Amino acid sequence: MEGAALPGRLIWRSARVVEIIEETPRVRTLLLDCPDWPGHLAGQHVDVRLTADDGYQAERSYSIASAPADEVLALTVERIDDGEVSPYLVGELRVGDEMELRGPIGGYFVWSKMRGGPLLLLAGGSGIVPLRCIMRQRAAVMSDAPIRLLYSVRSQHEIIYRKELDQFARNGVEVIYTLTREWPPEWTGYHRRVDGDMLREIAWPASERPLAYVCGPTAFVERGASELVSLEYEPDRIKTERFGPTNDSTIVDRSARQNKSPIT
Questions:
Q1: Which residues pair with 101 in a beta bridge?
Q2: Fewest beta carbons within 10 Å, which of 5, 41, 170, 246?
Q3: Which residues contact 234 (CB under 8 A, 6 or more apart)?
Q4: Is the pLDDT at 256 greater than 90, yes or no?
């Protein structure tokens, strides 16, 4: 069983930061040593809990960036300036520090070899994180499922995992970028937000029964999923995961994930 994550009671576990990778000026990946980690599936997430000296606690949810087959658990976090947790994780957390994790969580936005493909991955900004996990897992289990990634990002400087995505592209993943705010004069790729015309050019034909994963800000996810439905993708084969504001600020903030539900 890939990355066996057997159902069970969720408990808080201690994890120690063993390495930090600066992905972009606003994004870093935390490599964690979590000795009793039970394993996870590609696409799942964890809750992170921080406790201040006065006992105040804050919790947020973050996608798991590492594949089930990876030796070290990894989270990639984007700093949200008015967030409560991400500024600490991106700006202050150091190697050797400890944090609490609860998970893995989620059984909807997940992929395993038995689910097959072809795979269409749509990422907006830091929505690339769980999709990177899926791409890593596809490689680890030597799946031959055809796969395409459309990554929407504001500028080249904000592309997360650029080197790894280049490597994926050399190993059978079709990687397509669209830059939405800044692009160099020599840029020949897409330079606008994802729209229906773009997806008609990139997406697998619906007749091939592709499996689509869409992750990013709420507006991006809603637009992308709706366009795929208009291309006659089967709604139950469109998996979505959103980042954005919610009405319950005591549980999550702008940096956190919202409930995962298919858009139909």
A1: 13, 48
A2: 170
A3: 206, 209
A4: no
| C-alpha pair distances (Å), 26 with each of 16, 80, 86, 125 | 21, 8, 10, 11
Q: Determine the residue type at 231.
A: L
Predicted TM-score (pTM) of this structure: 0.88
Confidence at 79, pLDDT banded by 50, 70, 90: very high
For residue 64, the 8-state DSSP code is: B
Angle at 82 between CA 46 and CA 55, to 5 degrees: 60
Nearest to 130 by CA among 88, 169, 80, 74: 74
Distance CA 67, CA 47 (A): 17
Q: Mean pLDDT lowest for which of 2-6, 163-167, 222-226, 247-251? A: 247-251
Longest Cα–Cα distance in the chain: 58
Pairing of strands 211-217, 119-124: parallel
CA 6 – CA 104 distance, rounded (Å): 9
- Torsion, Cα 104 128 15 40, to 10 degrees, reads 30
Burial group, residue 154, by CB count within 10 angstroms (0-12, 13-18, 19+): middle
Q: What is the average pLDDT across 222-247?
A: 88
Residue 214 confidence (pLDDT): 97
Using alpha carbons only, give the angle 33, 75, 158 rounded to the nearest 5 degrees. 140
CA distance 264 to 262: 6
Question: Is 68 strand, coil or helix?
Answer: coil
